[in-house]
Amino acid sequence: MTPVPVGPLELLDIDHLLSDEERAVQHSARRLVDDTIRPNIAQWYEACTFPAEMALTFGKLGLLGMHLQGYGCAGMSAVDYGLACMELEAGDSGARSFASVQGSLAMFAIHRWGSEEQKQQWLPRMARGEFIGCFGLTEPDFGSDPAGMRTRARRDGQDWVLDGTKMWITNGSIADIAVVWARTDAGIQGFLVPTDTAGFTANKITGKLSLRASVTSELVLDGVRLPADAVLPGVQSLRGPLSCLDEARFGIVFGTLGAARDCLEIALDYSRSREVFKRPIGGYQLTQQKLADMTLELQKGFLLALHLGRLKDAGRLEPRQISLGKLNNAREAIAIARQCRTILGANGITLEYSVLRHANNLESVLTYEGTSEMHTLVIGQALTGLSAFS
Question: Is 369 labeled as catalytic in the residue annotation?
Answer without folding.
Answer: yes
